C-alpha cells in the first residue's frame, strides 16, 4: 500500500471565495485512518482554517456527514484505505446550503422536525407516574428500526427530490413520525397524518430509494414513507366510505 | 422548542438539469420513471387494437400490417424494454413499501417477490390462453 | 464579528443540551410554564456526548432489589468519598426519572411480558441497570430532545459557544456566547444559569470522550470564581479500543464477557476480585469496579503478561462464548463498532482493549439542588460534582445522575429566577470586555512554529504522564511545571482563520484555554491528596488514609489566577467508612 | 381527518403500477409482436368474439384507467424533478388532463365497438 493518499477537499470561505473550490492535500494512508482522521490531519498539520463538524468519531452523534466521492457518508466511519490509491474527493453534503468549507446549514431540517410531532402523544397524559407502559419485545421491534436515526442528514443529501423541492419534509423526519406511530405507547398517529397528508408531506417522495441505501443506521426511510402513503390512502378511503359514526 | 431564527449567510448550490446522468442509481431511477410514457403508449396501442378488431377483418389486417413497420417494431421493442424495467423495479419495491403480516410474523421480502412473479406467470398464461387458445 | 454584541434575555438559561441540560429544560417548562427558558449548546442538542453512552442507567426496579443496596453499592464504589445525603436522594429518585423517560418514549429493552428489563453492571450487587440494547445514551438523548420539541416556550441557541459567565457582586446574570454559523457575539442574560456542559475527557490524549468534551462549564465556573470539587478523580474505563479509544461497554462483561491476558488467563483473579465462574457473578471478577480493573491492567503490563500492539500494550475481551444471538440482541453496537473500527467480529474473535480515560468524577461543586458557589449559578450532569460518585463512579450511575440532578437543578433555578433581580448595568462592561478579548484573539498572530493543535497535544500527553492510572508526587509536580510553559504558549497563540462564520479554529483555541485550566486543577488536587482512593492511586501513598483524607478537595482560582486547594468534609449519614471488597 | 385528493390519486397510481407490471407485458408481447409477426395466429372471429364480450370490455376499462393515472402521475413528477420544469400547476394539468382525455377515448372505444 502507498504511504500517502491525495484528498481533494472542497473549500468555501464566504469572506474569500465567491463559490466553493476544490483544494488538494496529501495525507498519510494508514489502515486505521478514516476520512475524518485525514481531515483532522490536514487541520492539525497543513491548514488549521479547514472547517468541518465532528464529535463522537464513533458513528453515533451524526455530525460528520459529508459527500465522499459523491456519496453521502459518515466520515468517521469511512476508511481512507477503501479509496486507495485515491484521490478521495470530500465535499459538503449535497442539497444543503454551504456555510463554510464542509459545513452545511441544516436549519431547514431542524425547523421541519417538530412539525411531525416526534414525541409520545397520549390522551391520558398523566403527570404522576406509578409504573411503566407495558411493551412486549415484539411491540418494541415494530418501531425499533425507525428509532435508530441519528439525524445525520445523509438521506437528505441523497434524495434528489429534497434537492429539487426543499419544501419536501424529507426522509428522516417522516421516518421519525413513523417511529412514533408504530410505538405501542403512542396515540398520535392521527395528528401526524394531518401533517404528512399535505403535498409537502409524503407525496413528494417518488421512491428513489437512495435515502435508504445511504443510511448508515439502516433506518429505511424509503420504506417508512411508502408505508405512510399506504396508511394515508387507507385512512382517506375509510373516511370517504364509512359514515362518521363507524369511524374510529 | 424553537430556535431563534437568524438567517445564516450561505452558498446555495444549483442542481443541473442533468443531475441524473452522473450517478447510476439516479439514472436508473429516471429511466424507471420514464417507463410511464410507454405505459401510456401501450394503453393507446391496446385501444387501437381493440378498435381494429371490432372494425372487421379488413381493418384488423391493416392494423397488423402497420404493426410490422420497422418504426413501430422499434418503438414497441424499446417500449417493451421499459415495461420490463417497470415490472422488475415495481416488484422489487413492493416488499419495501409494505409490510405483510401472516400469523403475527412479517412475511419475508423474498417470499413477496416470488409471489408477484408467480402472479405474473399465472396472469400471462391466462391472457395467452384467452387470446390464442380459447 | 465587529458589529459588537447583540443581547437576548431569558429567565433561566441552560448551558448544554445533553441529558442533564434537556432534562432541566423540560423540568422548568413543566413546573414553571410562565418562565422563559433557553438552551445554549455548542452543538445541536442531539449531538451531545450523552449520545455515546452505551451500557445503561441504574435505578432500583427489580423485585429482589432495594434502595438500600443501591445506596450501599454506590457509597462503597465511591470509596466512601461520595456524599451520602446526595446518594440517598439520587437512588430514591432515579427509578422515577427512568420511568418518566419511558413515558417520553425511550425504547427501553423489555422482558418477554413487556416489563422493563434490567442487566448487571460493574460494582452493583443486583441487576438494576436499565438499558436500550447498547445504545442507551443515544435513545435517552433523542427521547429527551424530541420530547423537548413539544415545549414551544423553550428557546434554543444551537451551535452557540459560551465563552464567559456574566457575574456581578457574586451573582450570575447570564453568559456571553458566539453564534458559530455567523460569528455573532451575543450576550444572553438570565436570572439563573445552569451549567450542563458535560465532561472533560479531552484533557487526556486517549479517551472515550467526544471531541466536544473539553470541560467548558467547569472552566467557566472556575474562572468566574466558583469552586470545583474532587478534580483529582478521573475514571479510566478498562475496555477501550486501542487506536480510537472507542468504548466497548461494560455491558459486554455484564452479559458474561471475560478479560484475558496474553496467556488467555482471566487475570483479574490475581487482584483480589474473586474467583472465575462461568456465568457472571455480581460484584466479582469482570464485574468489579472500573478503578480496580484498570489498575489490574497496569500490573499485568508490569508483569509482562499483556500483548503488544502499535498503540501500546493490550489485553483481550472475550465474548465468543456468548454466541451471535445474544450479541446481536443485547450488544449490537459492540459488534458494529468492532467490525467497523477493528475489522474483527466479536462472535468469532477476541477484542483488543486497553484502559482509557472515560469520566470525570469531579466538577463544579454543587449542593443537592445543583446550587454552585455563586448566586444564580447551578450545575448538573457530568460537569457538576454533587458528589455521588466520590472517588470512583459506578458504571450506569451517570445517566440517571444527569436526569435526577438535571431536574433538581432546573426546578431550583426556576424558583430562584422567579425571585431574582434584573441584570445590573455593570454587566454591559463585561460584555464589551469579552467582545474585545475575542476580537483580539482573532486578530493575534500565531507564532509560525506553534498552534492550537500542537499545544493541545502536548497538554494531553503531559496530563497522561502526570496523572495517569497511577500517579506520584513527582509526576504531578513535573506536570504542573510543564503547565506553566504551556500556559504561556496558550497566551501567545492566535487564530489563523479570520472569517466570522464557523470559525472552528477559534472554538479550538477557546477550548484549549478551558483544557489548560481544568488540567491544572486536576494536577493540583492530585498533589494535595496524599493517599490512594478509588481512581486516585498514588504509588508514593498506596494506602487509603481516612484520618487525613476523608474529605473533598475544592479548588478555586485565587487572586493571582492560580488554583488554590481547600478541604470540605464528606457527608456521612448512616454508612461509616468500611473496606471496599469485591468478589467476596 | 382532513380530506385530500392526493391519497386517492396515489392509490390509483399504485393500482395502475401493479396492472402495468402484471398485465401489460404479456399483452404487449402478443399484440405488438406475436400477432403482427405471425408467431401465433388466432382467427379474427375469435378475437372479435373476445372484444365484443362485455366482460372483456369492462375488464379492459378497469385496467386501462388506473394505468393512465399511473402514467400521468409518474410522468408529472419526472417532468417536474427530472427535467425541472417548474410550472407545477401547468404540468399537473397537462398530465392528469391528458389521462382524462385518454380515459374518455377509452370509454368511447370500448362502448362503441
Ligand atoms: C463512551 C461513553 C459511554 C458511556 N456510557 C455510560 C453508560 O452506559 N451509563 C452511564 O450512566 N453513563 C455513561 N457514560 C457517561 C455519561 O454518558 C455522561 O456522563 C453523560 O452523558 C453526560 O451528560 P451531560 O448532560 O452532563 O453532558 P453532555 O451530554 O456531554 O452534554 C454537554 C452539552 O454541553 C454543551 N456545551 C459544552 N460546552 C459548551 C459551551 N462552551 N457552550 C455551549 N454549550 C456547551 C454541549 O454542546 C452539549 O450539549 C458514558 C460516557 C462515555 C464517554
Ligand atoms: S434516516 Fe438514516 S441517513 Fe437519514 S438522518 Fe436518519 S440515520 Fe441519517
Ligand atoms: S431518496 Fe427521496 S424520493 Fe423518497 S425514497 Fe428516499 S425520500
Ligand atoms: S463524528 Fe459522530 S457520527 Fe461521525
Summarize the model shown.
By secondary structure, chain A is α+β, with helices and mostly antiparallel strands. Chain A has helices spanning 35-46, 107-112, 137-144, 154-158, 160-164, 171-181, 189-196, 210-214, 221-241, and strands at residues 4-11, 21-28, 65-68, 71-74, 88-91, 98-100, 103-104.
Written description of the protein model:
The complex is a heterotetramer of chains A (248), B (134), C (584) and D (113). Chain A has nine helices and seven strands; from the N terminus they run ββαβββββαααααααα. With 248 residues, chain A is α+β, with helices and mostly antiparallel strands. In chain A, α6 (171-181) packs across α9. Chain A starts with a strand and ends in a 7-residue tail after the last helix. Chain B has a domain at 19-83: 3 helical TM bundles of succinate and fumarate reductases. In chain B, 71% of the residues lie in helices and 3% in strands. A two-stranded antiparallel ribbon of chain B has the order 1-2. In chain B, β1 (101-102) and β2 (105-106) form a beta hairpin. Chain B starts with 23 loop residues before the first helix and ends with a helix. Chain C is of the alpha/beta class. Among the domains of chain C are: 239-355, Flavocytochrome C3, Chain A, domain 1 (Alpha-Beta Complex); 429-549, Fumarate reductase/succinate dehydrogenase flavoprotein-like, C-terminal domain (Methane Monooxygenase Hydroxylase, Chain G, domain 1). In chain C, 35% of the residues lie in helices and 19% in strands. In chain C, the strands form six sheets. Chain C has a five-stranded parallel β-sheet, sandwiched between helices. In chain C, strands 20-18-12-23-24 form a five-stranded mixed β-sheet. In chain C, strands 13, 14, 15, 16 and 17 form a five-stranded antiparallel β-sheet that branches. The longest helix of chain C is centred in the C-terminal third of the chain and has 25 residues, at 504-528. Chains in contact: A-B, A-C, A-D, B-C, B-D. The interface between A and C is large, with 60 and 64 residues. The complex binds flavin-adenine dinucleotide (FAD), iron/sulfur cluster, FE3-S4 cluster and FE2/S2 (inorganic) cluster (FES).
Give the structural class of chain D.
mainly alpha
CATH class of chain D: Mainly Alpha
Coarse morphology of chain D: elongated
Percent range for β-strand residues of chain D = under 5%
Extended strand count of chain D? 0
Give the name of the CATH architecture of chain D.
Up-down Bundle
Topology:
The complex is a heterotetramer of chains A (248), B (134), C (584) and D (113).
Chain A: E1 4-11, E2 21-28, H1 35-46, E3 65-68, E4 71-74, E5 88-91, E6 98-100, E7 103-104, H2 107-112, H3 137-144, H4 154-158, H5 160-164, H6 171-181, H7 189-196, H8 210-214, H9 221-241
Chain B: H1 24-54, H2 57-67, H3 70-97, E1 101-102, E2 105-106, H4 109-133
Antiparallel strand pairs in B: 1-2
Chain D: H1 6-22, H2 24-34, H3 44-52, H4 54-82, H5 88-112
Helix pairs in contact in D: 1-4, 4-5
The structure holds flavin-adenine dinucleotide, iron/sulfur cluster, FE3-S4 cluster and FE2/S2 (inorganic) cluster.
